[in-house]
């Protein structure tokens, strides 16, 4: 099942990349996608049926919009810290409890945290997420967990889990 | 001079400023950060160049550069974290 | 016209990222500024390319490059932070908190 999904994905990628519908191009793309799916199929995402549930795409769209907005905010935040003469930074590594269970959702949460203002993911050990924060504004774990992951966790849970 | 050409020269100057960090960087990790960002900036140069010359194939070079610099950075990071285990 | 505006914004973000790369005091802060500004700046330049070419083959290539840069840069940033910490590079002088110290060993 997942070999088939990877085959379809890589074939679509080939078609987009070459942008050509002649038969010889289709044949070359099919052979390349077959080799790719045979080699790397066992590393692919396991529960493929989730690709066929339409409500996930809706939540994915909302998630992407929020992510882009946070990304732009992060850039202005960095610009403020870089261009300020006194450089207002107070960095540190904080620990956050994770509530998501599946591996893929955790990876997406780590990616989103890297793109949000002032934070970058360092590591995941067991159920704890370690985050490097450029301005540690509070000491209370409850408060900063909500500040860092609260914006995304709901949508990632609905999209990927 | 066209505005796009000025932007192209600014982008090239930014890549050169990454070379400053590569040469001066106090530790090896600083150099690796600079190399990573250098790869991303070169893709920007490729994109602006493809608009100026109106040739689409330069974007292919950009895509290949992204993938290669990603793999290179991962390899270097693996080397950094694995080095402690060997010693 | 839209494409030129997007490219100007992208080059400005790249400029801020490079200033951060030179000005910040330690590896972790440099990585923050460089990853965020470099990624969004280059994605903005590629979006400008997409607006210039429209949905032709070159425009589709720009669309493909945007998620590649996005995920590539973030995953490379995690790997670099983790590698630098395990290599033994200390957090900078201004740091206030380090929860990762006990777990890393």
Question: Would you mind describing this structure in some detail?
Answer:
The complex is a heterotrimer of chains A (161), B (87) and C (105). Chain A is 61% helix and 12% strand. With 161 residues, chain A is mostly helical. Chain A has 2 domains: 2-48, no CATH class; 55-160, 2-Layer Sandwich (Alpha-Beta Plaits). In chain A, helix 1 (2-18) crosses helix 2 and helix 4 (103-115) packs across helix 5 (141-160). The two termini of chain A are 19 Å apart. The relative contact order of chain A is 0.13. Chain B is an all-alpha fold. Chain B has helices spanning 3-24, 28-53, 58-86. The model of chain B has no long low-confidence stretch (mean pLDDT 84). Chain B has 3 helices and no strands. Chain B is flat. Chain C has a single domain (2-91, 99-104), classed as Helix Hairpins, CATH 1.10.287. Chain C has 105 residues and is mainly alpha-helical. In chain C, helix 1 runs antiparallel to helix 2. Chain C is elongated. Chain C contains 4 helices and 1 strand; from the N terminus they run αααβα. Helix content of chain C is 80%, strand content 2%. Chain A binds chain C through residues 13, 16-17, 19, 71-72, 74-75, 78-79, 81-83, 87, 89-95, 110-111, 114-115, 118, 120-123, 125, 128, 130, 132, 134, 136, and chain C through 13, 16-17, 19-20, 23-24, 26, 28-29, 31-33, 35-37, 39-40, 56-57, 60-61, 63-64, 70-71, 74-75, 77-78, 81-82, 85, 91-92, 94-100, 103-104.
Structural class of chain A: mainly alpha
End-to-end distance of chain A: 19 Å
Q: What would you call the structural class of chain C? A: mainly alpha
The CATH class of chain C is identified as Mainly Alpha
Helix and strand topology:
The complex is a heterotrimer of chains A (161), B (87) and C (105).
Chain A (H helix, E strand, L loop, with lengths): L1 H17 L4 H18 L13 H30 L8 E6 L5 H13 L3 E7 L2 E6 L7 H20 L1
Antiparallel strand pairs in A: 1-3, 2-3
Chain B lengths: L2 H22 L3 H26 L4 H29 L1
Helix pairs in contact in B: 1-2, 2-3
Chain C lengths: L1 H22 L3 H27 L3 H31 L9 E2 L2 H4 L1
Question: Keywords, please?
Answer:
heterotrimer, A: 161 residues, mainly alpha, Alpha-Beta Plaits, 3-stranded antiparallel β-sheet, 3 strands, C: 105 residues, Helix Hairpins
């Amino acid at each position: 099942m997942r070999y088939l999904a990877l085959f379809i994905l890589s074939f679509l990628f080939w078609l987009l990349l070459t942008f050509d519908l002649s038969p010889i191009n289709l044949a070359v793309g099919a052979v390349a996608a077959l080799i790719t799916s045979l080699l790397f199929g066992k590393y692919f995402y396991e529960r493929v049926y989730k690709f066929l549930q339409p409500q996930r795409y809706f939540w994915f769209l909302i998630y992407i919009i929020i992510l882009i907005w946070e990304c732009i905010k992060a850039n202005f935040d960095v610009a403020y810290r870089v261009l300020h003469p006194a450089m207002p930074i107070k960095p540190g590594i904080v620990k956050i409890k994770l509530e998501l269970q599946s591996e893929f959702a955790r990876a997406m949460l780590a990616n989103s945290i890297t793109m949000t203002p002032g934070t970058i993911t360092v590591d995941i050990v067991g159920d704890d997420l370690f985050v490097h924060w450029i301005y540690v504004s509070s000491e209370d774990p409850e408060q900063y967990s909500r500040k860092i992951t609260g914006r995304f966790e709901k949508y990632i849970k609905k999209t990927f889990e | 001079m066209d505005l796009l050409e000025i932007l192209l020269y600014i982008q090239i100057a930014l890549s050169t400023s990454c070379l400053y960090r590569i040469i001066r960087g106090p530790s090896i990790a600083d150099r690796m950060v600079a190399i990573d960002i250098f790869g991303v900036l070169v893709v920007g140069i490729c994109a602006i160049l493809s608009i100026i010359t109106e040739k689409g194939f330069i974007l292919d070079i950009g895509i290949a550069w992204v993938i290669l610099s990603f793999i290179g950075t991962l390899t270097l990071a693996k080397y950094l974290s694995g080095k402690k285990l060997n010693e | 016209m839209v494409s030129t505006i997007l490219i100007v914004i992208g080059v400005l973000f790249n400029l801020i990222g490079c200033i951060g790369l030179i000005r910040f005091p330690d590896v972790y802060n440099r990585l923050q500024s460089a990853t965020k500004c470099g990624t969004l700046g280059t994605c903005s330049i590629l979006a400008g390319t997409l607006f210039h070419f429209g949905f032709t083959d070159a425009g589709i290539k720009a669309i493909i490059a945007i998620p590649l840069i996005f995920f590539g840069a973030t995953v490379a940033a995690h790997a670099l932070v983790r590698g630098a910490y395990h290599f033994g590079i200390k957090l900078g002088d201004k740091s206030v908190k380090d929860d990762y110290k006990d777990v890393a060993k």
